[in-house]
C-alpha cells in the first residue's frame, strides 16, 4: 500500500483488510486521506478511526484554524474601514461568498467517511470537543470508552457549529430536544448519555486501548463479509436517511439490479456450507496490482 501517513495522521494495517487511522490534527488532510485510501488501495474492508493522543480524542477547533477564521473576518473589517479600498472587498455579500468558499473544503473533508466504499468505525475516548463531534458524526459506527465526555462547544467561541454536528445529530439521535439543549448550553455529557440517545452504539469500559481493541474486533467481523454486500448496505442506509421509504425502495431496486449479479453471493453460500471464511475478490479490482 502506498504510504499515506503524514505528520498529523498515522495510518497502519493491524489486520488484513483493516486500517487504523490515528488523528493528531484535523482539517483538509483528513478528507484527503480517506479519498486516498479509496483511490490507492484495492481491498480495504473497514477502517477504525481513533486519536493519536492517549487522553483525548479531540480538543476541538485548532487555534491556528480559528485564527484563519478570524483573519477572514478581520480582513473584511479592515477593508470596510479603508476609504480607498477595492469596492469588491467592502461589499458584505462578496465577503460572505468568500467566507463560504473557505468553509466548503472543510465540510467536504468532514464527510469523507461517507464517500468511502467501506465502513468507518470511530473509536473515541477522553474529551470530544466541538469539531470532534463533527468528525465522528460522519462515521458509520461509533464506539466510546467509558471515560469519554462530549461537548458541542462552538457557541462558546461565538459561532454555530458548521462542520456537520447540527446536520447529523438530529438524524443520528432522533432527539431534537437533546441536541438543542447540548448545542445551546455547551454542557458536557458522558458516554452513557451518548449511548442512551444513540450517538454511540457501544460503551467500552476503559480508555483508548480498550475502545480501539473493541472497534478493531468489530472491523474484523465486518471484513469477513462480502465487500459488495457491505458497501451496498452502506450506500442504501445513507440514502434511506435522507429520502422517503418509497424513494429508498426505488433506489434499492435499481442498485440491486446490478449488485445481485456479484460472484460474492455464490461464494458466501459456498463458504458458509463449507464452514470456511469467504474468499472474496477485492472491491476495487482495477487496483488489483496493488497491495492493501
TrEMBL record:
Cellular component terms (Gene Ontology): mitochondrion
The molecular function terms of the Gene Ontology recorded here are: delta(3,5)-delta(2,4)-dienoyl-CoA isomerase activity
Pathway involvement?
A: Lipid metabolism; fatty acid beta-oxidation
Q: Which Gene3D superfamilies does the protein's record reference?
A: 2-enoyl-CoA Hydratase, Chain A, domain 1 (3.90.226.10), Lyase 2-enoyl-coa Hydratase, Chain A, domain 2 (1.10.12.10)
The UniProt keywords, alphabetically, are: Fatty acid metabolism, Isomerase, Lipid metabolism
Q: Which domain of life is it from?
A: Eukaryota
State the Gene Ontology BP annotations. Answer: fatty acid metabolic process
Family to which the UniProt record says this protein belongs:
Belongs to the enoyl-CoA hydratase/isomerase family.
Name of the featured protein: Enoyl-CoA hydratase/isomerase
